[in-house]
Amino acid sequence: MSQQFQVGDYVNIDLELEIVQSLQHGHGGWTDNMFECLGATGIVQSLDEDYDIVVVYPSGNRWTLNPALLTRVDLTSEQKLALQRQQTTANMARTTAAAVPHQALKVNDMVQICSDLEKMKIYQRGHGEWAEAMVPALGKVGRVIHLYADGDVKVQVSGGSWIFNPLAVTKVDQTHSTEGGNEERLNAMLKKLFDAQLTGDIHEELVKAAANGDLKRVEDLLKRPNIDVNGIFAGHTALQAAAQNGHKQIIHLLIKDNANLEIEDKDGDRAVHHAAFGNEPEILELLAKAGADLNVRNKRRQTPLHIGVCKGHFDVCKILLSNGAHAGIQDSDGDTPLHDAISKRRDDLINILLENNADVGTCNNNGFNSIHHSALRGNSSAIELILSKIQNRQWLVDEKKDDGFTALHLAALNDHCLAAELLLTKGNASINIQNNSLQTALHLAVGRQHLQIVNLLCSKNANINLADKDGDTCLHEALRHHTLSQLKQLQDVGDSGKTMNIFTNINGYDKRPSVVIACTLVSYGADLCIKNLKNQTPFDLCPDPHLCRILTQKNIEYKQEHSKNQLLTETSSSVECLVCSDNKRDTLFQPCSHIVTCHSCASRVKKCLLCKENVQTRIKIEQCKICSERKASVMYKPCGHLIACEECAGVSTKCLACRASIDSTVSFHELCCSETNDSISVKPEISTTTVPSNTISDAVALARLQQQLQEIREQVHCPICMDRLKNMVFLCGHGICQNCGDRVQECPICRKQIEKSIILYT
């Protein structure tokens, strides 16, 4: 979790409105009532299962926020007391308002339910919530059967019982007459109203009977001459009511009576939407066989699959997908069902969507594709599943948003270490890729003081010295952050007697995140002398002399260690056989005098791998002829014999093999390289010099472009002949070329019968 927030922390939002709205997507969303969050300090109340933060504000409102928005603040005791007093006042006002209707009601009281649907949806927030099945209760009289401690009331009404906000019910006054007969008559009237609730609307009775599963009543009503099977009550048809409540026999009856499967309610929901909401997979299969459109969208542009995923109904999603529901349709926010499944952290839903060809590359209205969204939410299991499905589309891992952020940037920004590690190890994400501000993931991690991410990126060989658009390297950013934190501490101290020691007080100094990050960067090779566009080195941004001394010492240690490692690397690479890479080089080629292979591989080499000269003689290198303890490693010149080790070669003036005078010697390392012979022409593909980094990056970019081109070809070419472009589509949404289309009777993709084909013109 970002910054490791704890319950009771005081937090502010210091970001601009557009950024806040963007980051809130998928973390509770944004409403106009949340403007109070931008100008007030809140208190962390709890942490939910998605690692989002619930913050309570002085008004008493509680908002679920993305932890990336929040900055911990330190308040004085007076400020804390004032903030707590404001919240206490707000809570008391709310409690008093809720307590009034609670005190005015008792069990067995008769109450009338509010008839305004929109008001009811507002009243029910936080009070049992609103359900479409509650529609028949609107405006009806019911009986209070239970009172809850928080003021909510449970009311028996319209053949069922629901929990209501006390503000949503009105007590029906009963005249307390001394004449028992009057009271009896009044109670009888109320009971009759409560039990019957008859209005004379035959379609109301049909919808209610269908919702309650009363098969006999539905059969009787459908026999009436003036009945309309598609009649609407409270915005719903009988088919929609039965679909949501899972009454299969009634749906069979309504479909047999020619009920319209595609009628919409006021929210644009059809029977298939209601069945998905009610977790009724069997009803969905029945509706699909009857010809219902499973890809239809409501006014929020949601398909039944969107609703099934959002509600977490796995069986509903499975039935929809098996009956041809499209896995990649976007809602009004641009989210696909895959985006929703990632937000819900439902690996089973993610897996089944991916198996049914959900498009990972589709972006929502905020520019997040599924990999971006997983990284933003820190859903590492989703990232792992997605990466396993896109092995031929690896370029998607480095796909950028409009602001240049990749999935790795988002994971680093939000301190999702496991997600970042998966992107790097399994997704081969480009660790040094830069956003529109030329920031790498390491820049963002340093700026947010995410130590774990910094360590990960450094250990994966991130380029620490890359500069952003201001010319700042990661070390500039780290030391700037350290200085700002020191100045803030200086301001908080206030006492001039303590300010002199603020930079020299090192109690727990080395454990501060800003210090640890700066030291880590230098330990991995951060340059202390690079200047930004303001002509500032990192040390120019750090007035802390103690930290400067530490970093200078770390820099010296790094250079010493780097030199030692470089020597070891050169030595190990020079003794490794260039053919098998398993054994050490131990064979001298003549006449070029190069050592490039082991004795086992030497017989297979016809030309020297370094100079391309024909190999005439292969001489296995033996033990030193002088000490017989070490391998011979020095060649005598001009005779060309290699018979002595380094220690013994220095004491000889003549070659022991031919007794010729020794003019000079050549070391084993030099014999392994091409520089021992000036006439040798080394070709680029066998050069032992380092390939420039820009050449490597160009090759990677070329490979990605080739992958993208291949994917585009697959999308636009006919899936049958693979030669011609698609220029004919069917009603199922799939397409092929006209030549192939004229010869098929069913879609080659989904196997549905072709009812109509449409020619595309370009």
From TrEMBL:
Reaction(s) catalysed (UniProt annotation): S-ubiquitinyl-[E2 ubiquitin-conjugating enzyme]-L-cysteine + [acceptor protein]-L-lysine = [E2 ubiquitin-conjugating enzyme]-L-cysteine + N(6)-ubiquitinyl-[acceptor protein]-L-lysine
Keyword set, alphabetical order: ANK repeat, Metal-binding, Repeat, Transferase, Ubl conjugation pathway, Zinc, Zinc-finger
ANK repeats: 234-266, 267-299, 300-332, 333-365, 403-436, 437-469
Pathway noted in the entry: Protein modification; protein ubiquitination
Signal peptide: none
CC terms in the record's Gene Ontology section: cytoplasm
Gene Ontology molecular function, alphabetical: ubiquitin protein ligase activity; zinc ion binding
Keyword Ribosomal protein among record annotations: no
GO biological process assignments: endocytosis; Notch signaling pathway; protein ubiquitination
Boundaries of every RING-type domain copy: 577-612, 624-659, 718-751
Keyword Metal-binding carried by entry: yes
EC number of the protein: 2.3.2.27
PROSITE patterns from the UniProt entry: ANK_REP_REGION, ANK_REPEAT, ZF_RING_2
Descriptive protein name: RING-type E3 ubiquitin transferase
Organism in which the protein naturally occurs: Adineta steineri
